[in-house]
Design brief:
With 218 residues, the chain is an all-alpha fold. The chain has two domains: 2-101, Helix Hairpins (Orthogonal Bundle); 115-217, no CATH class. It has helices spanning 2-6, 8-27, 31-61, 67-108, 115-136, 149-165, 168-187, 193-217. Helix 5 runs antiparallel to helix 8, helix 6 runs antiparallel to helix 7 (168-187) and helix 6 runs parallel beside helix 8 (193-217). The relative contact order is 0.09.
Length: 218
């Protein structure tokens, strides 16, 4: 309870665990696959709890800054990251055969995307971002404000790549890059989470709409 209440990452891990368990329910994985997923989830939760315990002990022993205290905390956090990466790999290896074919079918519904449609959609996303920033009076075309232009363009490109290739793995990797670009705006404190999410929705939504129009009337 203390870890969930005080640690944001613990709440994220719990949320991810709920999503995986729901996926297990609907995808009807085998008992062995469920056992491996459950063990992966438990490993991540235990690692996060050990990390919380180590942080508490370090703060008790060394309330002020100390290089060794920093090493202890960073190493404990690194252990959580490694465990989470292992769980992600396990989840992908087990769930990919269930999820990827269905995701591929969704991408195939859009058919082949034209080069012109891709260029037009990205340009429209840029123009819409500038217009919205002008109306809200926030930021500049390339820095700050509502929405995040970098997130909008990144997700626009990722959406276009997904629909062009219609390959589930390439689509997920493209979306992962878009998430990393958006996350960098948060780390640099240029945008808030709300601004990044709005930008991502703008980018993907406008691109989907424009490419669908090109499919109908192109």
């Amino acid at each position: 309870m203390h870890a969930v209440r005080t640690e944001k990452h613990m709440r994220i891990h719990f949320g991810a665990a709920i999503l995986v368990l729901l996926a297990v329910l609907f995808l009807k994985v085998t008992p062995t696959e469920f056992a491996l997923l459950a063990l992966s989830i438990l490993a991540v939760l235990c690692a996060e709890m050990f990390n919380t315990a180590i942080e508490a002990v370090v703060d008790l022993v060394s309330p002020g800054y100390h290089p060794l205290a920093k090493i202890a905390k960073d190493t404990a956090a690194g252990a959580v990251l490694i465990t989470a990466c292992g769980a992600a790999i396990m989840g992908y290896l087990i769930l990919a055969k269930y999820v990827m074919p269905r995701y591929g079918e969704v991408l195939a519904m859009y058919g082949t995307v034209s080069d012109m449609g891709t260029v037009v959609s990205i340009l429209i996303v840029v123009l819409v971002v500038i217009i919205v920033k002008s109306l809200t009076g926030t930021g500049t075309p390339l820095h700050g404000g509502v929405p995040s232009g970098h997130a909008a363009v990144a997700f626009s490109i990722a959406t276009a790549v997904s629909l062009t290739t219609r390959d589930p793995l390439i689509s997920l990797l493209s979306l992962l890059l878009a998430v990393m670009v958006s996350h960098s705006r948060l780390l640099m404190k240029i945008h808030s989470l709300r601004e990044v999410v709005i930008g991502a929705c703008f980018g993907s939504g406008i691109t989907l709409l424009v490419l669908q129009l090109f499919k109908w009337y192109g």
